[in-house]
Write a structure and sequence with these properties.
This protein is of the alpha/beta class and about 475 residues long. Among the domains are: about 1-50, no CATH class; about 55-170, Ribonuclease Inhibitor (Leucine-rich repeat, LRR (right-handed beta-alpha superhelix)), CATH 3.80.10. Helix content is about 40%, strand content about 10%. The protein contains 18 helices and 17 strands. The chain has helices at about 5-10, 10-25, 30-35, 40-50, 70-75, 95-105, 120-130, 150-165, 180-200, 220-225, 255-260, 290-295, 340-350, 375-380, 400-410, 430-435, 445-450, 460-479; strands at about 55-60, 85, 110-115, 140, 170-175, 205-210, 215-220, 235, 245, 265, 270-275, 280, 305, 330, 360, 390-395, 420. The strands form three sheets. The protein has a 13-stranded parallel β-sheet. The protein has a two-stranded parallel ribbon with strand order 7-9. The longest helix has 21 residues, at about 460-479. The protein starts with a helix and ends with a helix.
Length: about 475
């Protein structure tokens, strides 16, 4: 029996459910259009129930080049009525005509991403106003760079969407990993007061991403804490450009009641510009007081912290916390006092962050040249529980071959380590550095072990496991 005949024998509801599960896992584009081209059975399954397939639509994959005509054809088949997540990034052929089509067709839209496209300010204003009456957006992502709009117009579009959906928005993003140009940064700074006023009205906001936006930005921390008490993710990497950003406003008497209580991700790294001769870092105004004000109520919930380049931070061993960051899993602290002191690194691993999985002590243009073997000697000197650390970035450090051998050993306390960055570590052999660079940040510990000649055979691993099982028994007998 052929495969097509076997599917034809199944009830249409079963076929539809099988295909819908594939689409739910991988997205409507390109799978839903491809299914419609396989057979009549598949095409009927997709076209008779588009609401099961067209939920998460991402046109940025490059599967096709969407045009206004194609979008109108999809709308006629009722495709957009059930769409909840729509990504139009990089769709350079779409114009305001598509916005008019979507305004009439979208009935369940919750998440929208706009980047590129030949859209105008007036066209997007009309789209935002049309959606406000029938859809409650939970997420809006707008790139300030647009071929048909000035940066000020793009920010005005973002603010119109925020204004129309302030009661439902959970995510606001105009930041991006690639740095913005100077005119775009100036436009953000000029519009920042109005933007923050609108953000403060979003009581359900969970995520705010302003990565690489603005120059010399004034950040109203205390007002945002009062207006957005549910915030869980705050991304300010590169905010303010070379001049950085600073907190404005005064701490209120109700600070302990209004501070963020459930912050999971905090990114306050400085901006970095790559020139032909160097990597130039911007200025950071983040100090110990700033960190305490941001993490005061969330020290037990914070899971990811990026403080790269915050040179004004003090030694955290001298800061007394009522609680410890026991849930912290990712710490990026290159070019800070934390990454230039062996004792501080040891303190982070043993006492401060027991759940740490990613520790980045170095990054592009900022080597961990002051990190030596002593940073890990104290950790490995005691036979304690295995640390959950999976990724370790120590590029440019002074680690020796002996220290690396002990770190990646099968019976090491770093038994969960999967990847380690040893680039520019001049004290290590070139073969060892090359083994690290070939796959980092993917798993490279096995390659490093082979370069060191560490026995990875099954017998060696069984011997290690046998020794681990004996240690608790021997300790019990001794007691």
């Amino acid at each position: 029996m052929s495969r097509e005949t076997a599917f034809d024998a199944l009830p249409m509801d079963v076929v539809r459910e099988i295909l819908a599960r594939v689409v739910r896992d991988a997205g409507a584009v390109p799978h839903a259009p491809r299914f419609a081209c396989v057979s009549r059975t598949f095409r009927r399954a997709v076209e008779e129930a588009p609401e099961m397939f067209w939920i998460d639509v991402d046109f940025s994959h490059g599967f096709c080049a969407p045009t206004d005509a194609r979008m109108r054809a999809c709308a006629k088949r009722g495709v957009f009525a059930s769409v909840r997540r729509l990504n139009l990034s990089g769709c350079g052929k779409l114009t305001d005509a598509t916005m008019q089509t979507l305004a009439k067709s979208c009935e369940s839209l919750e998440e929208l991403t706009l980047s590129g496209g030949l859209f105008t300010r007036d066209g997007l204003f009309a789209f935002a106003d049309a959606l406000a009456g029938k859809c409650a957006l939970r997420s809006i992502v707008v790139d300030v760079t647009s071929p048909k709009m000035t940066p000020s117009d793009a920010l005005a579009v973002l603010m119109r969407f925020i204004e129309r959906n302030s009661a439902s928005l959970e995510r606001i993003q105009c930041g991006r990993e690639a740095p913005y140009a100077a005119p775009e940064r100036r436009a953000f700074s000029n519009a920042s007061n109005r933007l923050f006023e609108l953000v403060k009205t979003c009581g359900e906001l969970r995520s705010l991403d302003l990565t690489n936006c603005g120059q010399d930005v004034r950040f109203p921390l205390f007002e945002l804490q009062r207006g957005c008490p549910r915030l869980q993710e705050l991304k300010l990497n590169g905010l303010g450009g070379e001049s950085g950003w600073r907190i404005v406003g005064r701490v209120g008497e109700d600070f302990e009641e209004t501070c963020w209580r459930d912050l999971r991700t905090l990114e306050v790294a400085v901006s970095m510009e790559t020139t032909s001769v160097e990597h130039r870092y911007g200025n950071s105004n983040v100090n110990d007081e700033t960190m305490i004000l941001m993490l005061y109520g969330s020290i037990e919930t914070i899971e990811s912290l990026d403080i790269t380049g915050c040179t004004h931070l003090g030694d955290w061993r001298n800061i007394v916390w009522d609680r410890l960051p026991i849930a912290l899993k990712t710490l990026r602290c290159a070019r800070t006092p934390l990454s230039s002191d062996d004792a501080a690194v040891n303190h982070i691993l043993i006492h401060l962050c027991p759940a740490l999985e990613v520790l980045e002590l170095a990054c592009l243009g900022a080597n961990a040249k002051n990190v030596t073997d002593a940073a890990f000697d104290a950790v490995m000197a005691f036979d304690g529980p295995k640390l959950p650390l999976r990724i370790l970035g120590v590029a440019g450090s002074s680690l020796t071959t002996d220290a690396v051998r002990r770190i990646v050993a099968l019976d090491s306390r770093f038994a969960n380590l999967r990847s380690i960055d040893l680039a520019s570590c001049r004290s290590l052999a070139r073969e060892l550095r090359r083994a690290s660079l070939e796959t980092y940040p993917r798993d490279n510990v096995d390659a490093i072990r082979r370069a060191l000649g560490v026995d990875e055979s099954r017998d060696a691993r069984e011997d290690v496991e046998r020794d681990r099982a004996k240690r608790p028994r021997a300790a019990l007998d001794a007691s």
